[in-house]
Write a structure and sequence with these properties.
- With about 200 residues, the chain is an all-alpha fold.
- It has one domain.
- Helix 2 runs antiparallel to helix 7.
- The chain is globular.
- The termini are far apart.
Length: about 200
């Protein structure tokens, strides 16, 4: 039992966890989504940070663990999914940098599960990023990164109103642009790195 635990924890790589966490935070964008959260509250939504974060964690980890099986059913290799995912993430980065809308999502709802946990936080972008990163990172490191992201998301949700007052719209705009550039670079790495692996 002790040997199994030590071997499991021995698979953790701090560099991978930090890199994956930063990537997921950039995709989930809890700071950039704060105005949307406040807007939902004004429409009458009762936001419960615990429910949102637990639901998001369950959805993300379930998809991470089952996504590979789903791809095997369709006969898709991880490298090819990473290339396709990198392209999707590339388009998401353009949205963040250029302030354009490429992916349209219906966010008119009232609840913690929909639309907050899904699709806003645990949505297609995060799914794509997780499956794409399995080509380079271990599953244990990705699960750890998801849990760290959920903790950060929880802190942002409970401090949304304070952060909005403290940071202001201009600061949030700059943060979103910065994360957009990081996401763009990671998307290029996913696409071209896995293209090299395929060929």
């Amino acid at each position: 039992m002790i040997e199994h635990l030590s071997s499991f924890f021995g698979t953790f790589d701090i560099k991978q966890i930090v890199a994956a966490t930063f990537f997921l935070i950039a995709i989930i964008d809890p700071l950039g989504n704060m105005p949307l959260t406040i807007s939902l509250e004004k429409q009458g939504a009762k936001i419960n940070a615990w429910v949102v974060c637990i639901a998001s964690a369950i959805i993300l980890i379930a998809f991470l663990l089952l996504g590979d099986s789903l791809m095997s059913v369709f006969g898709i290799k991880v490298e090819y999914f990473a290339i396709a995912g990198g392209f999707i993430i590339f388009l998401m980065a353009l949205e963040m940098i250029l302030d354009i809308t490429i992916f349209k999502a219906d966010v008119d709802g009232n609840g913690n599960i929909v639309p907050l946990a899904f699709p806003m936080y645990a949505g297609p972008g995060a799914f794509t990023a997780l499956i794409a990163m399995t080509a380079e990172y271990s599953v244990s490191n990705l699960i750890a990164a998801v849990l760290v992201c959920i903790v950060i998301l929880f802190l942002v949700l409970i401090g949304t109103h304070w952060l909005m007052r403290y940071l202001g719209k201009n600061s949030l705009y700059i943060i979103r642009k910065f994360f957009g550039i990081i996401v763009l670079a990671i998307a290029c790495q996913l696409m071209f790195g896995n293209l090299a692996a395929v060929f």
